[in-house]
Design brief:
Layout: E1 8-13, E2 16-23, E3 26-31, H1 34-47, E4 58-59, E5 62-66, E6 70-74, H2 76-85, H3 115-128, H4 136-143, H5 151-166, E7 171-175, H6 187-191
Antiparallel strand pairs: 1-2, 2-3, 4-5, 5-6, 6-7
Helix pairs in contact: 2-5, 3-4, 3-5
């Protein structure tokens, strides 16, 4: 079991890795060794009343498309649903998530907007960042103003939605067998 996520289990067997994630009554699992998946699937089916759906294609809003040499993860359906929810189907798509001259600040003199709507937009956008690292900075910048959203903040948030409308088919591409290392730093780690 992982220390950060109590629903994620991993097991390393030699050079192979087995991973299992539990979410409410769903279990997804995978391994670098197909045999481990087959054995685990049979073991679970013998122990519990369950059905095996097969290869993962959609989970918690993430679309997973596995091909021979790579895997593509996106949230295109989630983005289309979000555009519809916030009634932005007719909006013109934008080529960037935020304008180069956008100096988003507290804007105390601007008109207040519906806080519930604004927070709903931000929540939806934060979920999209799971497969869209290109919008993380802009979403987080807009998220700062949830306590007192103004027209300028709503305009910047709508621009993000317009950008996503035009780029809903973008996602994360993972090449099979590629050796890459993901490294994360805390400010204190990096500065020290």
């Amino acid at each position: 079991m992982e220390k950060v996520d109590a629903t994620l289990f991993t097991k390393k067997l030699g050079n192979d890795l087995f991973v299992m994630q539990i979410y409410v009554d769903d279990i997804i699992f995978g391994s670098t060794n197909q045999y481990f998946c087959e054995v685990f699937g049979r073991m679970m089916a013998n122990e519990f009343e369950m059905s095996m759906i097969g290869e993962l294609s959609y989970f918690l809003g993430l679309q997973i498309k596995e091909m021979k040499n790579d895997t593509f993860v996106s949230q295109g359906k989630q983005m289309k649903d979000m555009i519809k929810k916030f009634e932005m189907q007719e909006a013109k798509p934008m080529s960037t998530p935020m304008g180069t001259n956008d100096q988003l600040g507290s804007d105390a003199s601007g008109n207040m907007v519906d806080q519930k709507l604004y927070r709903s937009m931000i929540g939806s956008l934060l979920y999209i960042t799971a497969s869209r690292p290109d919008v993380i900075f802009s979403v987080c910048k807009c998220a700062r103003y949830q306590a007192s959203p103004r027209e300028s903040h709503l305009k910047a948030t709508k621009r993000l939605l317009w950008y996503l409308k035009g780029t809903h088919d973008v996602g994360l591409w993972y090449l099979k067998g590629s050796n890459f290392e993901l490294i994360g730093y805390l400010d204190s780690d990096y500065g020290g």
